[in-house]
Specification:
By secondary structure, the protein is of the alpha/beta class. 35% of the residues lie in helices and 17% in strands. The protein has a 6-stranded mixed β-sheet with strand order 5-10-11-3-12-13, with helices on both faces. The protein binds adenosine-5'-diphosphate (2 copies) and zinc ion (2 copies).
Length: 815
Amino acid sequence: MTDSYVRVRGAREHNLRTVDVDIPRDALVAFTGVSGSGKSSLAFGTLYAEAQRRYFESVAPYARRLIHQVGAPKVEEVSGLPPAVALEQRRSAPSARSSVGTVTTLSNSLRMLFSRAGDYPDGAARLDSDAFSPNTAAGACPECHGLGRVHRVTEDSLVPDPALTIREGAVAAWPGAWQGKNLRDILATLGHDIDRPWRELPSAERDWILFTDEQPVVTVEPVREAGRIQRPYKGQYMSARRYVLHTFADSKSETLRTRVRGFLLTEPCPVCAGRRLRPEALAVTFAGHDIATLAARPLGALAALLAPTARRDDDGVAATLARDLVSRIEVLTELGLGYLAMDRPAPSLSAGELQRLRLATQLRSGLFGVVYVLDEPSAGLHPADTESLLAVLGRLKEAGNSLFVVEHDMDVVRSADWLVDVGPRAGEHGGRILHSGPVAGLADAAESATRRFLFDPAPPPERTPRTPTGTLALRGVTLHNLRGLDADFPLGVFTAVTGVSGSGKSTLVTRVLADAVRDHLGTAEEPAGPQDDGSAEDAADDRARIAAAEGLSAVDRLVRVDQKPIGRTPRSNLATYTGLFDAVRKVFAATDAARARGYTAGRFSFNVAAGRCETCQGEGFVAVELLFLPGTYAPCTACHGARYHPETLEITYRDRTVADVLAMTVDTAAEFLADVPAAARSLRTLREVGLGYLRLGQPATELSGGEAQRIKLATELQRTRRGHTLYLLDEPTTGLHPADTEVLLRQLHGLVDAGHTVVVVEHDMGVVAGADHVIDLGPGGGADGGRIVAAGTPGQVAAAPGSRTAPYLARAGVR
Ligand code: ADP
Ligand code: ADP
Ligand code: ZN
Ligand code: ZN
């Protein structure tokens, strides 16, 4: 007898209200509910966590203590649960060295093909497949060590202003403070004239100062300054080139490395021409191309090139390997990813693209009897691509697996075999199962927020598109797949940019438009938060060319609200990011008890030594090495997650400690801090963007991309704004239930009503239907895209021939 259900009894993780639920196996199960209702707490926090715990107990009994520390999910019993694989979007940042090829393991197969079936020059020995990887010593180009780029310095880059003397700082690349003076004094001791303008020094002398590899040691007579007498000392010279290259390669200080990066010119490696491999490896070809060339081809084109070999009716190595590659690429193409190339760095992919790559890779794993737990697999997908996503999910199911997906896209939800709707609202107002059964049964769940969107989506209200106040016109734009594109963005209105995955939407909006406005404003944009994504290094070879631009002067400010994390450690959280925590700390410092003890606001920061728990240094968590799982945190055993020194927690405000306040949700805190104006304003905007369910102390590492984006938006909304602001958002509805989307849209349209411009990249046809202007890119992805297929009001685009968006927009009820 086999019971074909996973049966959960007494689930209490996070906000779940002692939930009992039965979920069928070997089915596509959708979990729905508004943000914060408890979907992830059930799907990831309970089902996946429990499967993972059992797995670890079975394979690594010695890890039990650690598992105990990390904590088992709060659930009385789960029966019938198969092993689980999670394909989650949050917390799965790829490493800098990984690429589309490594994530999918397609690289291994292509290297094998070259090793075993490539065309070698006459007399050359066969190479091992490692020799085709730039990440191995056997394969890497010896000049650039497999990076494909070399860093160089020139006199111009090191000495930007040759009118200066050495004493005035002509060698700008040199370090500041003592070390810089030291080098200057060494030069003076060696007899160089440090008071002559740089350009007047003899060229041999200038070359030596900047480029020599000699490192003479001399006894330095320090140059006297402001009458201070210094003793002679021994100093060693280092040329500016040596200093810059060494610091860039070896310094542990990110600040120093960033500083010297400014003096480096980055160029393709002269030996491998950016192809990253040894000459011997590059000499091997397949179908007339070297491996680097094939890795740079879009996957779709690569499959076409391999097809003749794959079709060959033999079971030789070449045919077998080519068949394998082609069939794996087909799945990726089906998921709308055929425009990606194998050498594309994984960090430049969106979360949705990455999840679909991993999904496709799973199809090949041959696993069966597994539960795949997925987080909004439709994120980043045009409705046209969603159909193929469903087909791929269907194949995983046919192979004997179960699919549990947290989803907001009603098209995906409608095609599920089973629906678990959690709610009715967020946090403590949610956490109940409103429906668990076939999709149609949701019709009887009166409390469900999902029901209205699933069964009778209201047609968008009839509205007259706003009239633009001007136009921002870009001409001859070239970047990625945009080739000499002309694009007009109307100002003072809400514009939606649409198109299939890879058509160029993000490139046009978050790169080209953002760069053009930023360059015009001449200042760094005001990011809604810190945004060091380490991409600066690549910026030089990845910048847009824009032949002409008009209308830029109407824009006074640029704000990009993206989905990057608001912080990478549990030290940053919602309260610190929004500035709300400053107000909270002041409230505590102002209590009589705190004043009596001399506690200032700083004492109530978990980042300051005096007030925090010393065991975990205010993190509330300690990192544990749990087998091969990176970055697992367990609650601190000293403060149990409270983060503070016990004495700090003796101070209360209205009977609550500062740790209690951090544990409150935004909704609760809004009531508790209603008469603290600075806090109340932040809290109000957070609720307005639908984040009332988040806890103030929720670590940045636990927030989804969509949540991070809404926190940034709220932070921006609470600012007082002047002038005309251009807001750019990339798929702001990711992670949002349609009910939450309504709330968000009200905010965005409010910004337009206040005279600003909003441009969103969007797939949700409800959002597009409500825009004033639509720019549809396409027609396909990659080289098949990059053109404007249609532009105009939603009604005009819905009627445009040749647009893949049009039918879906028309279906959304646009007139
Ligand atoms: P959903 O997936 O429906 O958006 P979640 O399951 O993520 O909702 O969250 C449900 C509730 O649990 C929310 O109130 C959220 O603030 C809370 N929550 C989520 N993660 C944690 C956590 N790690 N610790 C405590 N509470 C959490
Ligand atoms: P969309 O936003 O419509 O999904 P993108 O703008 O992300 O499309 O991509 C358009 C094209 O540009 C695709 O062919 C993609 O592979 C390419 N592309 C995007 N980002 C990069 C990058 N950082 N490096 C190289 N190519 C890129
Ligand atoms: Zn090289
Ligand atoms: Zn602690």
